[in-house]
Amino acid sequence: MxxxxxxxxxxxxxxxxxxxxxxxEVSLHQQDIERIEHIDKWCRDLKxxxxxxxxxxxxxxxxRLKKLEYLNMALNNIEVIENLEGCESLQxxxxxxxxxxxxxxxxxxxxxxxxxxxxxxxxxxxxxxxxRQYVVACLPQLQWLDGKEIRRxxxxxxxxxxxxxxxxxxxxxxxxxEKREEQKRSGLKExxxxxxxxxxxxxxSENQNGTHQNxxxxxxxxxxxxxxxxxxxxxxxxFTPESRLEAHRHLEDKRRAKENKREKPKNKTLRTxxxxxxxxxxxxxxxxxxxxxxxxxxxxxxxxxxYRHMDTSLLDVDVQPTYVRVTVKEKVFQLVLPAxxxxxxxxxxxxQTTGHLLLFLPLAHGEIKPKKPTARPNSVTSNQxxxxxxxxxxxxxxxxxxxxxxxxxxxxxxxxxxxxxKPLQLSQPHQHGGVKERSVSKDFADDPEVPPLM
Length: 454
What we know:
single chain, four-stranded antiparallel sheet, seven-stranded mixed sheet, alpha/beta
């Protein structure tokens, strides 16, 4: 049984940002609902309510919807028109293809003064003699009945013959009610006495579970199921709420059986990836192109051509010393490697241009050979044809001198003279009588009028 819950109404209120207290329209059609509940408490401002194609047997819990203007309950199991007096703003009521047989219940709509349209097509009451005249006379505010406009002359004539029409309608209604009670009793008796064939059920269950190894038995079970399905739909039955419920349950069981059959392949045994003797197999279930090449630094490169726009979360990579396993959307790609690799040092990445999966697999035997470093001499050599210039080693800086200048540099300090390693000192000028002697140039002329500098 599907019930009207808060989550269901919020999902149907997407255009209202999920708010249900201010909701004015909600569509709950084709939800297999069997009872109206909570709507009158949660959605007081509701104006339009769609409940068609459900299994609702009774109109209830809508009397508090004072602003409700349109109520659609077509294709349900309603037998009596009731509990709509509180819907003061109701303008349109659709009860198409229900089971309304008590036509006198239509008089309960007299208090709905704004009611303009009423649809009762497909109900047993429409087969009553002078049905339309009775409804037109009972509901003077009505303007359309079953999609046909009510004209003034038709209304006047229906009001003139109301008493005779009412007597005739009540007689037919009593006959229908008696017939309906008999249908309920017979339907209950058939439900009690009906027992499904256990052999057919066993065949069906075994066929679904795959326990039958004999193809003849499986074919027989399939044929029996088809015969039973054909017999169910071709068997004549009265048009009643019970028959509609039975058809609904039958379709529901059939749908569940199909879902179970679809889920069955998911539980299948995994494909053998390693033999019983421990030999790893090469498998390519996703049927992807790949290439395995030698890479620099004693490394192998596996280029797996996965789908370019596929999400990386759908890939699962497992690198082992002797093989590589990549799961692509639950399909296994497994490749045996020609040499042993280091799983811990292996890396995987996606190409940004092609989307391919690139696996770098370092070899386990032999150290990885680094690139040869370039020579870094600490001098600059110059020849007539070639000249090399390198940066000195970090830490200590040396003065680089051209070897050709070695002879000239040796003449800077004369040979035979001892050099003192003491720090340089400035020579002090000679003093005479406390006056410092200054060197005087030849062109200097002393002016007696200028006082000496102190």
